[in-house]
Design a protein that fits this description.
The protein is mainly alpha-helical. The chain is built from 7 helices and no strands.
């Protein structure tokens, strides 16, 4: 699952170098490559990948056809909001984004079990909260408040690492409770 976030990391790294157009294009191209690789393995396109591809496609078009100063002011907020919404929408429509990844690692007989589904809802909510925390500095910055770079990076990295660790730990904890 974590590999699906590589386009986002690449995007944010390039964005931090003040390269919004290449950042958007790189995010789109890398996501497209990942989707092609999934299809070559006869796997379905994940909700996270589809949402990421759509976002970076729109963003790349905007990057090419809008004034960069205006675009650069809003792009970090948009990217954090997009990722947060992709995760939230997956939960709201009853297909938590982690479910597709979990099914690739879990025997089919567990897929419909209430415990398996509950675990994936919980993990997806944790990711949503992590991205919501990540969104806060972007909102503050757009409102005109200077956000120290260290706080912005901390708000990005700490919740992501915490969610990743939770994703690894929580299913094992729940399985042991049986």
């Amino acid at each position: 699952m974590l590999i699906s976030f590589i386009p986002w990391f690449l995007f944010w790294i390039l964005l931090s170098m003040r390269k919004p157009e290449p950042a958007a294009l790189a995010g789109f191209i890398v996501t497209l490559i990942f989707i092609i690789m999934e299809k070559a393995r006869h796997r379905s396109v994940k909700i996270l990948q589809a949402g990421t591809l759509a976002f970076f496609f729109i963003l790349a078009i905007l990057a090419i056809f809008t004034e960069l100063e205006w675009f650069g002011h809003w792009v970090n907020l948009w990217s954090n909001l997009a990722l947060t919404l992709i995760v939230l929408i997956s939960i709201v429509i009853g297909k938590p984004f982690t479910l597709q990844y979990a099914k690739e690692e879990t025997p089919k007989e567990y897929w419909s079990s209430p415990k398996f589904i509950q675990i994936n809802y919980t993990i997806s909510w944790v990711w949503f909260l992590a991205f919501l925390v990540n969104l806060a500095p972007s909102v503050i910055r757009v409102l005109g408040v200077k956000v120290p770079v260290s706080l912005n990076w901390a708000a990005s990295i700490i919740p992501f690492v915490a969610a990743a660790k939770f994703t690894k730990w929580y299913p094992h904890r729940e399985v042991k409770k049986r």
